[in-house]
Design a protein that fits this description.
Strand 1 (about 110) and strand 2 (about 115) form a beta hairpin. The strands form four sheets. Strands 4, 5, 6, 7, 8 and 9 form a six-stranded parallel β-sheet that branches. Strands 12-11-10-13-14 form a five-stranded parallel β-sheet. A two-stranded antiparallel sheet has the order 1-2. Residues about 1-50 and about 100-105 have low confidence and may be disordered. With about 550 residues, the protein is an alpha/beta fold. Among the domains are: about 155-285; about 290-320 and about 375-460 and about 480-515, Rossmann fold (3-Layer(aba) Sandwich), CATH 3.40.50. The protein is about 45% helix and about 10% strand. This is O-fucosyltransferase family protein. Pfam families: O-FucT (PF10250). It comes from Panicum miliaceum (Proso millet).
């Protein structure tokens, strides 16, 4: 019996030692370097244990190296779990902040009046359009139309508005004179309340060149007869309207003055050769006086020589004067005092449109969505940074007095510190002859923008569309003329959750086809911005 009990006990011990859990524990203890193992060694003290480095009990229990139910591991295990929970909670609360910094918001980071935008790598196509698209067209509007022997009478117009509106009026006057086979009396540049300028045609344009260049198209005389008849013409009138309604009166009275004359001839309702004649007037006959051309050349050269190496420069037409801001009836960022002062200004200047002002807020929102509001300086700065233009970009600013002054310009100037105007490039002595006529100053801006490597507009208007069309016609469309999509930009600016990377991608995609390349015309197209169909042909 004793032997039987001994054998039974031995077998039980053998089964216990051969159980899977026991074998795994033994194997782990024997093979893991993280577990203490006895090491027998010689010496005067006899055998001694050598203890290897070991992990804390809670960590060992997490790695299944120690039983978590042991007293040593239990307390430490709870402490470790509490620490992990605190860390996870802190990470949860800080995640939005970390994510927002990793994905810089679309409006950049604002510190006071400064805006800090993430840098975008400069692209190869920042300054030039694709070569194939830019070289496929050439100007071809120089074929003259010989006038008939007898004139039907004389026509006289007042060219109203600023320089560029006057330029368009002069082109239209030559065109209607051709339509009716009339003699054109040299147009008068009308003085108005806004510009308060007394510039005459001969103060800004080369009269001899104008008359001589067009002599094979239209008869032009300098003197104004003493008597005339005034005839009102609807806007964008057709060529047939002039033949049916104006020509009989000219034959009867022999002279007629058309007043007002802004936008009094359409585009797609006149013969192609008449539109081609308008191009000849705009791009060939209207030439600024030599001293204006020479000064503009100096300014353009100084823009490129502002650094050690010859650099391209950007011309930015910034339309944010007080008059433009008021006339737009759009809402802009500003203090309560600024908004109150602007409301008073609008009420005084445009009382019929202002009324009681209650309808203006929803109207302003609608206009911004439709892209009919001028871009603020800070907004155009963010768009240019998204396009890849760096802080070192040289920018010529063509603008009047910006509404809000230095405070309004600070975000743009912070993003692009190399921001200059004609007054910064020229001395007071050089600018003095041009201050006699506001139109002369506008002519300098016009020519420097025309010669720029990239032209950027911030609001539609006669200046911007004439520059884009001129660059297109004269072959400078290989260089970019950027026309921001203000409607889409307002949507992007209004999204507070759009990350910077997404904003950059949207800006690039949106403006791939808005760089001043010639485009086929469409009904009611603007000849001055897009002269392709009537005035250009395949290269």
């Amino acid at each position: 019996m004793a032997e039987l009990r001994y054998a039974t006990a031995a077998a039980a011990a053998t089964r216990a030692s051969s159980s899977p859990s026991k074998r795994d524990a033994d194997a782990a203890s024997a093979s893991s370097p993280l577990v203490a193992s006895p090491r027998v060694g010689g010496g005067k003290d006899g055998p001694r244990a050598h203890q290897r480095w070991s992990l804390p009990p809670p960590v060992r229990s997490l790695l299944a190296l120690e039983d978590p139910r042991s007293p040593a591991a239990s307390t430490s295990y709870r402490i470790l779990v509490a620490a992990i929970a605190c860390f996870a909670l802190a990470a949860l609360f800080s995640a939005p902040s970390v994510w927002s910094r990793l994905n810089a918001p679309y409006l950049c980071r604002k510190e006071g009046i400064r805006l800090h935008c993430p840098r975008v790598s400069e692209r190869d196509s920042l300054w030039e359009n694709p070569h194939a698209a830019a070289t496929s067209w050439k100007p071809c509007a120089e074929r003259h139309l010989v006038p008939e022997n007898e004139t039907s009478g004389f026509i006289f117009i007042h060219a109203e508005g600023g320089l560029n509106q006057q330029r368009i009026a002069i082109c239209n006057a030559v065109a209607i004179a051709k339509i009716m086979n009339a003699t054109l009396i040299l147009p008068v540049l009308k003085q108005d309340q806004t510009w308060k300028d007394q510039t005459k045609f001969e103060d800004i344009f080369d009269v001899d060149h104008f008359i001589n260049y067009l002599k094979d198209d239209v008869r032009i005389v300098r003197d104004i007869p003493d008597w005339r008849t005034v005839k009102n013409i609807p806007k964008y009138a057709s060529a047939q309207f002039y033949i049916d309604n104006v020509l009989p009166r000219i034959r009867e009275k022999k002279i007629m003055s058309i007043k007002p004359f802004a936008d009094r001839l359409g585009y797609d309702n006149v013969p192609m050769e008449i539109n081609r004649l308008r191009c000849r007037v705009n791009y060939h006959a209207l030439k600024f006086l030599p001293h204006i051309e020479e000064m503009a050349d100096k300014l353009a050269t100084r823009m490129r020589n502002r650094t050690v190496n010859l650099n391209p420069y950007m011309a930015l037409h910034l339309r944010f004067e007080k008059g433009m801001v008021g006339l737009s009836f759009c809402d802009f960022a500003g203090t309560r005092e600024e908004k109150a002062m602007m409301a008073t200004y609008r009420q005084l200047q445009w009382p019929r449109r202002y009324k009681n002002g209650s309808h203006l807020w929803p109207l302003a929102l609608e206009k911004r969505k439709e892209g009919r509001c001028p871009l603020e300086p800070g907004e155009i700065g963010i768009i240019l940074r998204a396009m890849g233009y760096t802080k070192e970009t040289q920018i010529y600013v063509a603008s009047g007095q910006v509404y809000g002054g230095n405070t309004r310009m600070a975000p743009l100037r912070n993003m692009f510190p190399n921001l200059v105007s004609k007054e910064d490039l020229a001395s007071k002595e050089e600018m003095e002859p041009f201050k006699k006529h506001v139109t002369s100053l506008a002519a300098l801006d016009f020519l420097v923008c025309l010669k720029s490597d990239v032209f950027v507009m911030t609001h539609s208007g006669n200046f911007a569309k004439l520059i884009i069309g001129y660059r297109c016609y004269m072959g400078r469309h290989r260089l970019k003329s950027i026309k921001p999509d203000k409607g889409l930009m307002s949507k992007f600016f209004g999204d507070p959750y759009m990350p910077w990377a997404t904003f950059v991608e949207n800006v690039m995609i949106t403006h791939q086809t808005r760089t001043g390349l010639p485009e086929p015309t469409f009904p009611h197209y603007d000849l001055w911005e897009n002269p392709l169909t009537p005035c250009m042909c395949r290269a």
